[in-house]
């Protein structure tokens, strides 16, 4: 039987989260876009209501729920056009702590991640290194009971707001191949030698703070090593399936949102004496988009069931990541075109969505990287 996230407890949870968005997020989102940052209080309110890391075990103050509840949160955020990065925190970053952290680390950090008192970031990308993680230059040298970190990271979501940053760094710069020298070290916000660089002025997702991070002889307790030394690249690869699935779900939800309100707009907007939908070219264009959006939804639902069952679907998730994010961008282009001049005005949602969706086929692995992975997976 296909997974139904619109009935029973799932429906109750979805309705509750929608009410949270209506009360705490949507009325203020334009203000946050202008400010370029989301207030910490929103994270804490989300935590109070059980909307952060719902899958975390009860002994760490979580609800012990399934990943399905995270999917509901991700979908509803996208469909509301509100890109508060709860999914980044809950389903991409915190799982590293839950999977690879020691019991002491879990006890120390997970409750705060659930409550919203701890906001997380992951620092992989560097000014000269994007998708090629093996080429990172940030180093962590062991000195007694500490690691000394040196390097710069960029494009870090939650870069300014974060309390806890998982940093990918080289603990063995001479490793051959290079990726075997990468470790994950957790840097806390008050670590000596850690500073925040400039906040990046982005094309879209403007309410989500994105910044540079600087580590200058940054001293971190050796106990903040996540998992085994020099195993960081393996950990990153193990978590990419869920990361890219989450990104695909976000893009799918945004595509559904844009199509739905564009259909309504075209029904109401008249030109040459009749609704925009009554012109064959326009109705065909909407029909094409509706077909692609439906195909994306079917693919996502299949992958979600396989992921929940613990299956390895790296190839299929890579396919979804490139195709659905590209489809969402095509949808944005045609939806804006159907709005005409109004689509170019900020008062209409397509204007912001058009800007926001552009990053989806870049972050978490570009379309080109996804195609490389697929090629390898099919033996090319």
From TrEMBL:
InterPro entries: Acyl-CoA_DH_CS, Acyl-CoA_Oxase/DH_mid-dom, Acyl-CoA_Oxase/DH_mid-dom_sf, AcylCo_DH-like_C, AcylCo_DH/oxidase_C, AcylCoA_DH/ox_N, AcylCoA_DH/ox_N_sf, AcylCoA_DH/oxidase_NM_dom_sf
Domain Acyl-CoA oxidase/dehydrogenase middle residues, every copy: 121-218
Annotated coiled-coil segments of the chain: none
Domain of life the protein comes from: Bacteria
Pfam family, one: Acyl-CoA_dh_N
Acyl-CoA dehydrogenase/oxidase N-terminal domain segment(s): 9-117
UniProt GO MF annotations: acyl-CoA dehydrogenase activity; flavin adenine dinucleotide binding
Keywords tagged on the record: FAD, Flavoprotein, Oxidoreductase
Cofactors that this protein relies on: FAD
Residue intervals of the Acyl-CoA dehydrogenase/oxidase C-terminal domain: 230-378
Family statement: Belongs to the acyl-CoA dehydrogenase family.
Protein name listed in UniProt: Acyl-CoA dehydrogenase
The organism of origin for this protein: Desulfallas thermosapovorans DSM 6562
